[in-house]
Each structure stands twice: as C-alpha cells, then as structure tokens.
Amino acid sequence: MYAKVYGATVDGLDGVIVTVEVDISQGLPVFDIVGLPNQAVKESRERVRAAIKNSGFEFPMRRIVVNLGPAEVRKSSSGLDLPIAIGVLAASGQIKMRKRKLMSLLQSTLFIGELSLDGGLKKTQGILSMAMKALDENLVTVFTSSENIALLHYIDTIASYGARTLEDIVQVLIKPDSYTVEDISTNREDKTYSSIDYKDVHGQELGKRAMIIVATGLHHVMMTGPPGAGKTMLAERLPTILPDMSWDERFETTRIHDVAGLLEKNILISRRPFRGPHHTATLASIIGGGSNAKPGEITLAHNGVLFIDEAPEFPRFILDALRQPLESHTITVNRLQNSYEYPAKFICVLAANPCPCGYYGDPHKECVCSSTEFMKYQNKISGPILDRIDLYISVERPSFNDMLLTNEDSLSSSDMKDLVERGRNIQLERFKDCTFKTNGSMPHRAIRELCNIQDDCWNLLSDVYERFHFTGRSFDRLLKVSRTIADMDGSLYVEKKHISEAMLYRHTPFHVSRIGDHDGTTV
C-alpha cells in the first residue's frame, strides 16, 4: 500500500516542498524515515505513532518506510509530523474516501504541523515561507494547526484550514463542510504602542536633528560620548520616527521573524524592528548561519534599526562583517551544501565611549587610560567601517538646565516623524522610476544626476575633498547627506548651507592621536 502526501520545510528563509512517500508492506513491524532527515524529523516516528493511536486510529503493525524528497535537501522541520501521519493513514486505508478522490485531493494539498502525543497540533515556525512556496508549486490548499491559521489568512490566494487535532484534520478531509471558520480577522493590528518617545530625551538637540536626517535619508550614524550622556536613548527611539511600514515590508519582516521563531503574535508585525545585540554575540548570531542557516541580527533588523552599543567592545572581525550589508543591504552566508542571501536593509547605529574609561576629553573628569589602551580601544573599529558611516555626532552630557526641562519643552517623536515623512515623500517622488527610494541607497552613478547640486557649490566641495582627504565613498556619503538636508528644507537644489551642515556630521574622534594638537579626524 502506497500514498504520497506533500509537506514542507524551511531552507534558509525559503520554503521547500517535501514529497512524503509512505509505503506499507508485509514484514516485521518497523518504521523507517529516509531522505536526509535531521534529528527532529527522525524523532517524529514516536510522535506520529502515539498521535495516531491516541486519535482513535490504528497504527499498522507492518513494515513502514517513509521517504522524504528531494533527498539532497536536509529536512529540519517538525512540521513534517502531520504529512507523515496523513500518509500512514491514507496508505493503510483509514481515511474513508474513494481512493481516486483521496489521491486527487492529496495532490493539491499541503500539510504542515507538529504533533503532540495525544494527537494535538502545535504551532510550526516558517509557516509563511512554506505557504508562499506552496503557491509556486500549485498547491492551493493548506492544512495546519489552528495556531498557524491566522497568519495564513493574510494570503488571499490560498485556501487554509486550521485544526487542533489530527482527528479534526481527517474529518475535514472527509467532509469539508464540517470545517467551522474561527473568528480570525486578517485586518488585526498590534495595538500595543511604544511607550518611548523623544520627549524623554532632555537637551541633545544636535542629536535629535541628526536622527531626523538619519531617518529621512536612511543613513548610518555613529555616536560618541561619555557614559550616561543619552546615546542609548537616542538610538532606541529611532524606530518611533521612521515612516510606517508598507504591507510588503510588514509581510517580509513577519516572514523573517517567523522563520527565526521570534514571532510572538499571529499577526503581521507593524512596528519596525529594533535589534541591539550584546557585544558577546557570536559571528553566526550577527550575520546568520549555524547548522540550520538561520537569519542573524542584521536580517532580523531588516526594515528597522540595528544598534551596536559599546561598538569597540565587539571583536573587530564581527564589526568588519558588517561591510557588505552596509553597502548592498544583503548578506551572503556560505555553507558547505548551499549559499544563502538574506535581506539586510537596516539603519546601523554605532555607539561608543571615546576611550575605555569613557572620560577622554571630558572637562570635569580626568581620563585614566594610557595611550596604549586608548589606541587599542579606538582601533577596534576599522577604517573601512568608519568610511561606511554617513554621520558622526558627539553626545555631550546634558546640563542641569536641560534636565529641568519638562516633556512639553522637548521635541516629540510625533513632531520629528512629521519632518521625516515630509522629506521621505520628496525622495519617493524623485526616485519613483528607480529601484532605490531613499538618498542613502543611491548608487554612485546616480548621485551626480539626481542630487541637483548648485553650480556654485563645486568649488566648496573641491576644497573640502582636498583638505580632508576624502575617499570616494565618504565623498559620496557627504553628498547624500547634503541632499537629505536639502529635502528636509524643501529645497530643489543642494546649496552651500546644506553642505556645510553635512560637514558638521563628518567629524569623528576615532583614530586620532593623543599626542600633540589635534581636533579629530574628518573622514
């Protein structure tokens, strides 16, 4: 007796349709699963056996062989429990339908679900990726757990059925009219609003201005300053002033978090992600990888913000791994069996103290670091990484008068978001025929054509380029920031005042000498 059922697994961020073939023949009772299953799939033998028995069906005491194809893809999803169980029941004739009708139904249906020992169905990670792959393979119906069904209802072009037990799935297969639709609204929104606001940040007007520029043009920023000055507060409030996510951005972000197992609610993510990995994080956890090639922090920050606090405390090779995604907005993870390309379009915010003790240059506290410690600390951030940062800001300790200000006296996130959206709308109109939509994403060849720099600015730019020894990349970033500032002013052209303000954000205290006179290095 033979049956063929379709299940699915996840490879990277993409779903993979798995053909589950079940053969039941005479012989000593044995239950084998072949086709490169991982340990979780191998253990499904015991879950499937117990679930079938406890659901009121008979587990065949014969020789059972389950083949999972394609054989070259490692199967790593516990969601294959349900298709294996359905295959066993179909091959043993326990699904009471005409064989031809049953085979026809199984050929257009995808089964996804992890089974508990009592026959209950559990939530499965990566359901959105699997369902999207099912559409590509002309599988128009999905049977899964009731915990997954809310997400599938966002995909209008696929019929989805959710159940709580294996027995319910079999009943719906036999009598589709018996399925009762749960009260699930595809328009549900996450009503939990952020409790943080830029009103809570006292003083730091320069920092807030820089954050508006960052959010408007999708630029990267680095903040330096003594401990407790407000660097973290400025960074963690950045998502509150970013434009609302489009439906496509919400769906993509939700799909990524679903694969990573970080989706807390069965609704689309509506708030832009904010990821702040600790400096003890491994390379694989930052860029992605591991045995299952899971997405890392830079992919989890896609469409949002990646905050690298205490950046010099990170190993240098981890920071250098950010070079590719900061430029291309993607990250390529190579493994022995495959190569994966993950999206990584995020705003990178670096924060650092000026030295190990944190008080170099402080007018009130003396720095106790030696020159060797100082240089070793600052060299943790390489020149190529600094060259990819658009803005540098110095965050000073707020004054006593700043601390006395009430929230009403401070610029709110709502006010800042209005300014950001005004500048972003100008960019959307300018780049309507382009693949990129923000100033920060402009490629080199488009800068001269689309920035609209006034003719009288080129002498100033020439002086700046020669005096501060810009690289080609840093010069491009200066022009991009200048264009963003002009957009915020509603100016059609980039003027000298916009370039002058952009130059204020090109000063970094990193990679300087402590000996002799210096005013920092301009990159």
Automatic annotation (TrEMBL):
Domain of life of the source: Bacteria
Alphabetical list of InterPro entries matching this protein: AAA+_ATPase, CHLI-like, Mg_chelat-rel, Mg_chelat-rel_C, Mg_chelatse_chII-like_cat_dom, P-loop_NTPase, Ribosomal_Su5_D2-typ_SF, Ribsml_uS5_D2-typ_fold_subgr
Keywords: Hydrolase, Protease
Single Gene Ontology BP annotation: proteolysis
Domain (AAA+ ATPase) ranges: 217-399
SMART domains registered for this protein in UniProt: AAA
Record-level Gene Ontology MF annotations: ATP binding; peptidase activity
Entry-linked Pfam families: ChlI, Mg_chelatase, Mg_chelatase_C
Recorded family membership: Belongs to the Mg-chelatase subunits D/I family. ComM subfamily.
Protein name per the record: ATP-dependent protease
Source organism of the structure: Veillonella tobetsuensis
Chain's gene name: comM
